[in-house]
Amino acid sequence: MNDTLIFLSRFIVTIGLTASLLACDRSTGDNKTIGQKVDETIQKSGTAVENAGSKIEQSTDKAASEMKSATNNAEQVLDDSAITASVQASFAKDPDLSVFKINVDTKAGVVSLFGEANSEVAKERAASIAAATKGVKSVNNNLVVNPKR
To answer: Given CB 3.0 to 4.6 Å as the disulfide criterion, which of 24, 83, 98, 138 pairs with 35?
Structure first.
C-alpha cells in the first residue's frame, strides 16, 4: 500500500511537471508562448533594475556634488573669517590705525573697509595693509577721511 501511494504521488508530480512544460509552449491570444512572456517579463525586470540603479547612481553623484559645494562654501567662510581677523590684527598693531574704528568685511577674498581715517595717508595705509594680507584678492576701500580725530 505504501508503494502504491509513492507511485501515485510520483505519477501526479510527473503529470504536473509535464503540464507545466507543455504550457510554456502553448500559445496565448497574442501569438506568444507563456515561456516567451516569462522571458519578456524577466527582461523588463532587468531593465527596470538597471534604470533604478542608474537613478540611484545619479542621486548619489548629485548628493556628492552638493556635499562638495557645501564643504567648499564652509572653507571659504573660514578663509574669509581668517582674512578679516588678520587684517584687524594688523590694524591694531599700527599706531596710525589702531585708534580708529575700521570695520572689515571679507567675502570670497575681497576685503571691504568701512569707517573713518584721520587722513588720506591713513586711508591708503589701511588699504595697503589689507591688500598685503595673505588670501586677499582685492580691497574695496570705503573709509571716509575725517581729520577731526
So the answer is: 24
Count of alpha carbons within 13 Å of 91, Cβ hemisphere only?
26
Q: What is the pTM of this model?
A: 0.51
For the chain, domains (ranges, CATH) are 45-149 (3.30.1340.30)
What is the per-residue pLDDT across 77-106, written as a single tens digit (0 to 9) for each? 558 888 888 898 888 888 877 667 888 999
Q: Hey, what amino acid is at 99?
A: V
Closest CA to 108 of 146, 138, 70: 138
Q: Pairing state of beta strands 138-145 and 110-117?
A: parallel
What does the chain come to in residues? 149
CB burial of residue 73 (10 Å; 0-12, 13-18, 19+): exposed
Contacts of 36 (CB under 8 A, 6+ apart): none
Pairwise CA distance, residues 57 & 8, whole Å: 54
